[in-house]
Amino acid sequence: MTTAELPTPRPAGAAVDPGRWPDVATPPRASRARTAVTEAVVRRALDRLPLRVRFAGATPAGRGGPLIDVHDPRRFHARIGTHGLIGFGESYMAGEWDAPDLTGALTVLAGHAAELIPAPLQRLRGLWAPRHPASRRNTPGTARTNISRHYDLSNDLFALFLDDTLSYSSALFRGFPARRELLAAAQHRKIDRLLDLAGVSEGTRLLEIGTGWGELAIRAAARGAHVTSLTLSAAQRDLAVRRVREAGLDDRVRIELCDYREAGGTYDAVVSVEMIEAVGEEFWPVYFRTLDARLAPGGRIALQAITMPHDRLLASRDTFTWIQKYVFPGGLLPSTEAVAGTVRDHTGLTVARRDAFGAHYAETLRLWRERFTERADDVAALGFDDTFRRLWTFYLAYSEAGFRSGYLDVQQYLLTKPATADEETPAR
């Protein structure tokens, strides 16, 4: 096992900052009865899984497999009993448990996600599972705040673990295992495939929804396209504008700090890469209607989206999760069924093609995670504390595990629009 595979340990005696991490610094007060019931439920679940879980001062659990060491069982069970999977993640952030192969352990859990909670409790999910805070709905005003909380953290932070293209979405590799020195080429391969799907060439009027740090806009402009790119992240926009200027393409690229709902104009092609995940279920119809409205007749849309199984979407869509609390506020992954249904019911667009490549995302995340771990001292030098570094270690491993287990997938879609206006379906 390499150093890059090890989770970030919490130094002995290190404290969690209660001002920054109140729910991590102070474990919930749970009754002995509640904690005991939680321990029984957790053990019952673990005893059916290919895991080995060592509880300090107690009998190990699991059928054997990747190791989890629970250093503080009382707090571990109190957090899970009070806050469910949010508590599980917060317990890791607090250093109450560790795993030598964190991704391996989380892959087992992700692969058995539908079985972790007993069926009777699943049916009562609405009574015990936390619901999305109304304050994080992706209204035009709140969406900017939600995006800022993740993407405006620090351009320098993202640059520490991404490749030189600063692409923060799944790459497309030629083979596995993926090699770090080939990550930038794999990102370009992904971008080029999206541009090809959208038919982007000399003179194309292209709308990009979700700029990132500008690599796709730069690559499209190098083909001769005229690009309008929209983002809600001020930090990303500033760096993307600079990168476009340094590439000598600022006459072909305009980057706007603008919500997708505020977009105007008509375009030959639209590209949106892993942005739908930040839209929120109630706004999926608005998002796809916007794509339809901005696209000229006969135009093409290339969409890249992370997806989850439809049954898990239906079961969990109202539940507030650890990822939503700490990483992507307001986010929700669609299913392929949800995408197809929304396009069908709310637009005149047609899903002409869909290609899945989840294994490539697992490898992309592995490379990011290893690099993030190697650059831990540089992350600290940027002012991010140990709790943040454990949070991001968990986030990257948790995401990688989702793709390795097949719980998550990533799709590239081609959506098309009829060539004549009278063939279009009116917006509903």
Describe this structure in words.
The chain is built from 18 helices and ten strands. With 428 residues, the chain is α/β, with parallel strands linked by helices. The radius of gyration is 22 Å and the shape is globular. Helix 10 (215-222) links the parallel strand 4 (205-209) and strand 5. It has helices at 22-25, 32-46, 73-93, 102-111, 119-123, 125-128, 140-151, 155-161, 183-198, 215-222, 234-246, 284-294, 310-316, 322-326, 336-346, 358-374, 376-381, 386-405, and strands at 52-55, 67-70, 97-98, 205-209, 226-231, 253-257, 267-273, 295-307, 350-356, 409-416. The strands form two sheets. The protein has a seven-stranded mixed β-sheet, sandwiched between helices. Mean pLDDT is 92; it is low at 1-8 and 423-428. It starts with 21 loop residues before the first helix and ends in a 12-residue tail after the last strand. Helix 2 packs across helix 3 (73-93), helix 4 (102-111) packs across helix 18 (386-405) and helix 16 packs antiparallel against helix 18. The chain has two domains: 3-130, no CATH class; 136-423, Vaccinia Virus protein VP39 (Rossmann fold, 3-Layer(aba) Sandwich). Helices cover 45% and strands 14% of the residues.
